[in-house]
Specification:
It is built from 9 helices and no strands. With 222 residues, it is mainly α.
């Protein structure tokens, strides 16, 4: 009996799920036709109909990662600073599904760094993410919830912070469980919002060094 289009699509979904499971458990370094075939319970010969080369497999894996990232649920708890915080929380590995996705993203960095074409694509993705964060930062500034200044600068700092936290949480999940990640993010945001509060104490004060006390000809220190 000939295979139908529905059978073909179902098989492609099965193949994609097998690719995802291999990436989640072994990372990009473990993504091979043999590993995907074993996960699928099929032969490597069958997979060559979908991925005639390793590069085709990698391209499919990256496309799958993009599509699943775009399709995952997003937080919508408010506007301004709440929306800015939501976007950062959406990046963190706070659930098993988000942990799998982040593990795949991080493990794919080496592949992207070794391929100029993929690397340029990743640079573009992170730039687009910063642009979106910048828009939310600007909205929070308009509401007086973030300090004035270049929203792109705020976005770049926030993106750098949250990606660093992702790596820490993946390597040492016991030290960085979900509640700790949220706490650290909120602490980081508090350092930003404190600058908008005129009643908040300054973050640092000048101190006179012991060897140079204030006096005639010496600027006063406080």
């Amino acid at each position: 009996m000939p295979r139908t289009k529905g059978d073909h699509e179902a098989r492609r979904r099965d193949v994609s799920e097998a690719v995802w499971q291999v990436m989640a458990t072994r990372g990009f370094a473990g993504l091979t036709l043999r590993a995907v075939a074993a996960e699928l319970g099929a032969t490597t010969g069958l997979l060559t109909h979908y991925f005639p080369t390793k590069h085709a497999l990698v391209e499919h894996a990256l496309d799958l990662l993009d599509r699943r990232t775009a399709a995952r649920p997003r937080r919508h708890t408010g506007q301004g600073l709440a929306a800015f915080r939501d976007a950062l929380l959406d990046v963190l590995p706070l659930t098993p599904e988000a942990t799998d996705a982040n593990r795949i993203w991080v493990s794919s960095w080496d592949t992207a760094l070794s391929d100029p074409g993929l690397g340029a694509g990743y640079a573009r993705k992170y730039a687009e993410s910063r642009d979106r964060l910048g828009e939310r930062a600007a909205a929070a500034q308009e509401l007086g919830e973030l300090p004035s200044g270049d929203p792109a600068h705020i976005a770049a700092g926030a993106q750098s912070f949250v990606l660093g936290l992702v790596v820490q949480a993946l390597f040492d999940p016991a030290a960085f469980p979900p509640q700790r990640q949220v706490e650290l993010l909120d602490n980081y945001l508090a350092t930003l919002t404190a600058r908008t509060d005129p009643t908040a104490p300054p973050t640092s004060t000048r101190r006179c060094p012991p060897e140079a006390p204030a006096g005639r000809g010496t600027p006063a220190c406080g």
